[in-house]
Amino acid sequence: MKFSRPAIIHNPVGGSARPEMISALVAAFAAQGITGCRLYPTGPEPQSANTNAHAAIAEGADLLIAVGGDGTVKEVASAAMFHELPMAAYQGGTGNQFANYFYPRLPAADFCKMLIEGEPQKLDVLELRLWKDSSNGDGTQQSSTQFCIVGACSGSIAEAISKAPRFWKRIFGKLVYFWRVVLACLNPKRDKIKLYFKGGETHEQELLTLAIFNVDRTPLLELAPACNASDGLVDLVCFEAKNVFQILSTCFWLLLKRPFKTPYFKHRRVEELSIRAEKPIHFNVDGEEEDAAAIDVKVLPGALRMIVSA
């Protein structure tokens, strides 16, 4: 792809972010004769990466490069879709599930070469409409819409992941997630959920964890092995285990990458669905925390243009 003014929107405190990583990217572009690269570090403000992406586009950027975790990539992707501009992602967070789905972490020079030789591909994005109780206390609900590139999950496991301290993530990486998930499984909490599918089909269940995926690159596991970001479908995964023994049984088959061997694991692929709960529950959306009593999920086919290979 031809470009001359790439913008690097990077999270300087991401789980695996290092100053030398950004310097290596700038040097790799310069070695290819691309000297118009500009840097946009994110700050503590909400939606900082999204704000920076819009600013970069206003200043003439012709390619957005998100360097950070899935949260940073999602915010940059939102701006890229709005302006119909291509983007790329470079692993600079802890999980990096979205970027890892398409390629391993490449040396800066190889990543730059991939961008130059590759062409943007159309990828699906999930549109989530979250419903929350109104702040004025009149019993009504307010909704907000956001995009999702990896997926969302609720339940004890989701809470354990999303509330992992940033300090410990930078030191121990994914081991922090593993340890917190183990502790969560020892004290499981279940949520009463209603699922509404296209065509009027409805299911009511008590679930340990519910997850939806646009892409699935879950470390050590294959929760939705057929999942991909260009088929117009969202993958729904439900864990119905009720006690520690059922959880351990489910984890055993998950670690063997054969989750369909356990009756407590359910998986299906749909175009859209609605999730309703008796009370607000905690969701992890692309690594970010959200609390909602309901979520409407819809696939936006081919909404994002991203360079994922040469």
CATH class of the largest domain: Mainly Beta
**Main β-sheet description:** 10 strands, antiparallel
- Per CATH, the architecture of the largest domain is Sandwich
Unreliable parts: none
The portion of residues forming beta strands comes to 35-45%
N-to-C SSE series?
A: EHEHEHEHHEEEHHHEEEEHEEE
Termini Cα gap: 9 Å
The assigned structural class equals alpha+beta
Examine the coordinates and then state which fold CATH places here, giving the name of the CATH topology of the largest domain.
Tumour Suppressor Smad4
Helix content: 25-40%
Characterization of the model:
This protein has 310 residues and is an alpha+beta fold. The chain has 2 domains: 6-119, Probable inorganic polyphosphate/atp-NAD kinase, domain 1 (Rossmann fold), CATH 3.40.50.10330; 125-305, Tumour Suppressor Smad4, CATH 2.60.200.40. 30% of the residues lie in helices and 35% in strands. The protein is built from 9 helices and 14 strands. The chain has helices at residues 19-31, 48-58, 70-83, 97-102, 108-117, 156-162, 166-172, 174-186, 244-255, and strands spanning 6-10, 38-41, 63-68, 87-91, 121-133, 141-148, 151-155, 191-197, 202-207, 209-213, 234-239, 265-270, 272-285, 288-306. Strands 5, 6, 7, 8, 9, 10, 11, 12, 13 and 14 form a 10-stranded antiparallel β-sheet that branches. Strands 2-1-3-4 form a 4-stranded parallel β-sheet. α1 (19-31) packs across α5, α2 (48-58) packs parallel to α3 and α6 (156-162) runs antiparallel to α8. The longest helix has 14 residues, at 70-83.
